[in-house]
Design brief:
single chain, alpha/beta, Immunoglobulin-like, 4-stranded mixed beta sheet, 3 helices, 8 strands, 24% helix
């Protein structure tokens, strides 16, 4: 009887340890006008955990969401989102994920997702990416907040 009890306890502990962590769904709006000005993602900076899904939703027409080249964790590749459609970014690794709206990138429409706690492994690479002037102006405080 004692062996059975120990086995049941061991099996229960193993199942609990193997249970998936509850991932969150986070919504980011793509807007023509928001608290941060014209052509913005709200929120523009998102703190996430690995496994979370970030839903970029077009609340106004004429937007998409897509990765900024060089601003993704090593080994992560994401396709560009379609115009006027929801774009879902599943956070697969710790690090920084730079996002832009292609039609409004030159107007500074960028967002940053930080996955994980502590320093992002790709922080230096993300900070070194050359951005359009208005995109850089909006991205710099987000990069500072991600430290």
């Amino acid at each position: 009887m004692r062996v059975l009890t120990v086995s049941v306890l061991a099996l229960s502990a193993a199942l609990i340890a193997a249970a998936p962590v509850c991932a969150k769904d986070i919504t980011v709006q793509m807007k023509n006008q928001g608290a941060g000005g014209m052509m913005v993602f709200e929120p523009a900076f998102v703190q996430a955990a690995v496994g979370d899904k970030i839903h970029f939703m077009p609340s106004d027409m004429g937007h998409n969401a897509e990765p900024i080249p060089g601003m993704m964790p090593d080994g992560v590749t994401e396709p560009a989102g379609a115009m006027n459609k929801e774009y879902v970014l599943t956070v697969s690794k710790p690090g920084l994920y730079g996002i832009k709206c292609k039609p409004h990138y030159s107007m500074g429409m960028v967002a940053l997702v930080k996955a994980g706690k502590g320093a992002a492994p790709n922080a230096a690479a993300a900070a070194a990416v050359s951005l359009a002037p208005l995109a850089k102006k909006r991205m710099e405080p987000m990069l500072a907040a991600a430290k």
